[in-house]
Fold this protein.
Amino acid sequence: MAKRNFVTIERHIIEEQMKHPEATGELSKLLTDLSIAAKIISREVNKAGLVNILGVAGGENVHGERVKKLDVFAHDLLFGMMDHGGQLAVMASEEEEGVMEIPPDKRVGKYVLLFDPLDGSSNIDANVSIGTIFSIFRRVTEGGGPGGLEDCVRPGVKQVAAGYVLYGSSTMFVYTAGEGTHGFTLDPSIGEFLLSHENIRIPKRGNIYSVNEGNYPYWSDGLKRYVENLRSEQSPIGKPYSARYIGSMVADVHRTLLYGGVFLYPADAKRPNGKLRLLYEANPMAFIVESAGGKASDGAGRILERTPEGLHDRCPVILGSADDVADAERFLREERG
Ligand code: AHM
Ligand code: MG
């Protein structure tokens, strides 16, 4: 018989909330609003291929309206969708230099939202998967006014929830509030995210590595040795690992969560802190991966324990199956001596 007991994301969020009788429902409302914003961004991303027909980004569309670039659209949409719910004190985005206060005419809440509105946006024109990443903290500043920089620049261990939306062959919303990582797939015919991946557990060991190998000349000897080991019959699985690199963090991390293995955007001679942003990319993904039983390291220690200095800090990233990440750390430790 066909399955009738569909679990929508709203229902799942409320059921999770009910496990905590002290919860006020504000985090639930925040996550639900984010899932609605995700549907709107998904709709626009799916139309991206039609841009030459409907109007070029930066130019005018058939209605004579200016067409925004998709990453700017996603940034504006997220701010506009999330500023009036009464749950947030302040926001920050990869697309904006400073923090974004809740406007004075809106109710101020106790949470803080950081986001990368459209990660991997250089892939859009080739129809390659892209994503939105978000991270939620509780505010630390006191008083009823808007929050500020010190509410945003916090170590990842303090996150209360994090998630991503993957705009791929289907659109998926994956989140954790610290108790398991759950995945939902958008059914476009009814416009709802339905629970498709309950309590994702990342395999302890994988057989895939994912890194931009074009940066090889700039890698440290320890990193070169680690990846060469994975490509050899002396690897931990006794045969070479497979290589997979999409170049869209959300898609690469999503595959790593489901299939296992290791994703790296390491430090190298050109980028001593790697490329990815600690607050918008590394921290939320680290929280998601750890909640699924994996590990996330900056090469020396846990990403979640790094103390950020500024909103746009970068951080080396090695995440995925616990045994694979531990191996990478060992090669890098041996090199440091
Ligand atoms: P972006 O924030 O400018 O989109 O860059 C982030 C993206 C990640 O999605 C991806 O992991 C990485 O850049 C790929 O970088 P590279 O092209 O150097 O391999
Ligand atoms: Mg990004």
Summary: Residues 26-46 form the longest helix (21 residues). The CA atoms of residues 206 and 259 lie 7 Å apart. Residues 208-336 form a domain with the D-Maltodextrin-Binding Protein; domain 2 fold (CATH 3.40.190.80).
